[in-house]
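Deviation from plan, reported transparently: FE2/S2 (inorganic) cluster complex.
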Amino acid sequence: MDRASRFCRRTFLGDAWRTVAWGAAGVVTLGLAGMLRHVVGRTIDIPLPADLLERAGRQDGVQVDGIFVRWSGDTPTAFSLRCTHLGCRTRPDPASGGFACPCHGSRFDREGAVIRGPAEAPLARVPVRLEGARWIATVEADHG
Amino acid sequence: MGERPADGHRFGALSLGFLAVTVLSGVALVPMYRPEDALASVEAIHGAIPGAWLIRAVHAFAALGFLLSTVIHLAQVVVRGDVGRVPAGIWWRSTLLLPIAVAGMLTGFLLRGDAEAIAAMAVGRGVLGSVPWIGEGLATLLLGPPGAGLGPVALHHAGTLTVLPWLLSFEHGRRAWPDLRSLVTALLASIAIAGIVPVAPGPAEGAAGRLLGPWYLLGLQGMLLDLPVVTAWIVPAAAVLGVGMLAHVRGRARTAVMAGLGGVAVAWVGWTVRLLVAGAG
Ligand code: FES
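Because the crystal trials were delayed, the predicted structure below was used instead.
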């Protein structure tokens, strides 16, 4: 009995050390991977072609590279089409002017506000600036 | 090819046969696949390169065969009451074959690069990212940093998710290569199904309506219509833990764990139906 319990204890301690060692290796690996996320660029500049902006004015908005551009007054405004639930690309709905997500059915109005979940946050606004004669949109690397 | 397996281990041996067919057909696909131009290369496999579609279909169905035969083998061990005879560490590591096999199939789905695959990649990143503290690291480790394309996924698919199941199968069954009967059975079964069921990729842009993930994860997609994102990793993780715990529990506790696993399976089917009934976005 005594020998058996010593044996079990030794086995248990061996298992416990192995588990701790594997756990530590896992945490270090994940930590390094997480740091990589901060090393690679987090934002991208997307130049908006002039003809696209013209079309955006004529058609109540156009999409390019995962963003949706629409004129309001004399300035283009842009949304990320990335659904705020889990990141699928939403689709503009020409009938309502809003956006629908094909993954779990979230819906957003034309201002990007949530009409129906599971998404809880509105579509992200994408900053747009004029550089010389070109409009440039700055988006997150995983914008959609 | 080594000795023939005992009858009680027929499905265990068959799973190694399916794994070998998966790996060999995967090796044959390597020169034809380009992660930086994924969809075009998969379309070429299904059109421009003669016979390549069959290799890809065999690859996909052999992977499914690996998962199914592993499930059946583990279930047989449980039903026969043999779990207690397997050392607990080996049982736990064998249990890991289940998520690893699913990860192999899922990464294969992502590598198609079509609209459904791109959406599944986004959802996968979101689900992994919802794991507290380690989520961002986990997502980056498994899928690469955002905007990295399919390169990291392709590496895991061909490397990590090939080496790990082989190591675990080897530890479990003490053989690195399947017996001839299992290999031929796995190959013929994969070819037969590949000839019947198409596996071509979808379009680059999804048509109107819902984009669907791989069929074995539709339950998870349906779950996300109603439940918080964290349930998408808690429920599968709990199921894997439940299977692992079978090595430690007896009597009523085992019955309770089995009932829990059955409940997850039923709920999974229910969520699949829920998703399909919910229809277009
Ligand atoms: S990702 Fe859009 S609703 Fe889930």
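Residues 1-40 of chain A form one domain. We consider this an acceptable substitute for the interim report.
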